[in-house]
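go over whats below:
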Amino acid sequence: MIDYEYGVKFDTIPEVMLEVLRTWRNDPKIYNWCRQVGLIEQANQKKWFDKIQEDQSIQMFSVLGKAVSGDEEVETLLGVAGLCSINTIHGHAEISLYLYPDLKYKKGERQLLFKPAPSSSLAAIKTLARYAFDDLRLNRIWGDTFEENRVEVLNLSTLGFVCEGTLRESYFKQGKFINSVIQSMLRSDYKKVKESWK
């Protein structure tokens, strides 16, 4: 378990959660912001799970944190975060993150719709950065975000990621070519901002 007290915890991804995660990933609320092409079948989800157990260039975690509905709060699985394309020679990795926006829970006879706490995405990015720089001793992490995903582009910018540029029409999604924004953080950037994250 990784807990830097930013508001979320990272844990292993239990195999029993694969079907839930596959359902989330195939939901348009997540799918429309991911680079995956086509819906994920059960067999492919299992291959992904097996790969992340064996491939040392990928480290993925379940994200645990608070979800809220009005004034009610639950501690729950929020999504998945991790580092991909980890290269220890060159000291870099790409960040990966998705939090599912609608979490349903029964409370007595009624069903409530919980949403991740508003700060959860920022907390997950902080946790990824600290893990990458302090634990793995990397020098650079980056995000490749669809330009239309303005919330995530803003989240990275807010935390000190620097925009390196826009890849024009780099992905084909929903029947059109779309731009993506490359934002990165260096170890030197992290050292300047990490104290402000507490």
In short: The longest helix spans residues 120-135. The two ends are 19 Å apart (CA to CA).
